[in-house]
Design a protein that fits this description.
By secondary structure, this protein is mostly loops. The chain contains no helices and 3 strands. Helices cover 0% and strands 11% of the residues.
Length: 126
């Protein structure tokens, strides 16, 4: 595993919560927001809008730390009934939920105001 050369941070933009940088309950919008509303949230890598607005569904099966990619949590053939990791927080959660390190487990059939998901398309260059 490669060491992170940039400083560690609580949020993609730094260490202090800021309702001007992500859509979470302290922002006061009270609903999802359009992509591009928070461009000042960019990380040192240029990634934007990684916190707040809607939860990001991951493929990882939820297990306690420490993380070990060989323990089965990254099994692509795992049942869809498994509890998966969600990250990023949402408009409904406090600044605590939009921290980089915050995650929790959710079932694929779990629904409610607290769970929204976005779909990301990542271009592949050959």
């Amino acid at each position: 595993m490669k060491k992170n050369e940039t400083s560690q941070r609580l949020y993609p933009w730094g260490n202090d919560p800021d309702p001007n940088r992500a859509n979470y309950n302290e922002t006061g919008i009270g609903a999802t927001s359009a992509v591009g509303c928070f461009p000042s949230e960019a990380s040192p890598y240029g990634c934007e809008e990684m916190s707040g607005n809607v939860w990001e569904w991951t493929r990882s099966i939820y297990r306690e730390y420490p993380y070990d990619p060989k323990d089965g949590r990254e099994n692509l053939e795992a049942s869809s009934a498994k509890i998966r990791v969600v990250r990023g927080g949402s408009f409904y959660f406090s600044h605590w939920g939009v921290r980089c390190s915050y995650r929790y487990g959710a079932r694929s059939r779990q629904r409610g105001l607290r769970l929204w998901f976005s779909c990301d398309v990542v271009p592949i260059y050959l």
